[in-house]
Write a structure and sequence with these properties.
Length: 115
């Protein structure tokens, strides 16, 4: 099984920045894709950004131009750089690993954007 540990969440003001980290227990290149999801109050969990093992990225429309997903292969870590944060970005953010046969989730990290 793949263990995922998120960190970096916290409380920031509108317009601020935050970087989330997701450390995986095995090589990221052994995983089909890594992704960041979020679940805001009153909403279902939704995809924020993803990156495949070949490096292709995908972003949800609301975060395009503001968020960037990246990776550090040596550290088995995926990052989500969040800039120009909006109140609507407030949610619990979850790291996901897609290994085809199975999906693995982190415990989640709270991001709260205050106005």
């Amino acid at each position: 099984q793949v263990q995922l540990v998120e960190s970096g969440g916290g409380l920031v003001q509108v317009g601020g920045s935050l970087r989330l980290s997701c450390a995986a227990s095995e090589s990221i290149f052994s995983i089909n894709a890594m992704g960041w999801y979020r679940q805001a109050p009153g909403n279902q969990r939704e995809l924020v950004a993803s990156i495949t093992r070949s490096g292709r990225t995908n972003y949800a429309d609301p975060v395009k131009g503001r968020f960037t997903i990246s990776r550090d292969s040596a550290k088995n870590t995926v990052y989500l750089q969040m800039n120009s944060l909006k109140f609507e970005d407030t949610a619990v953010y979850y790291c996901n690993a897609d290994r085809g046969q199975s999906n693995y989730w982190g415990q989640g990290t709270q991001v709260t954007v205050s106005s």
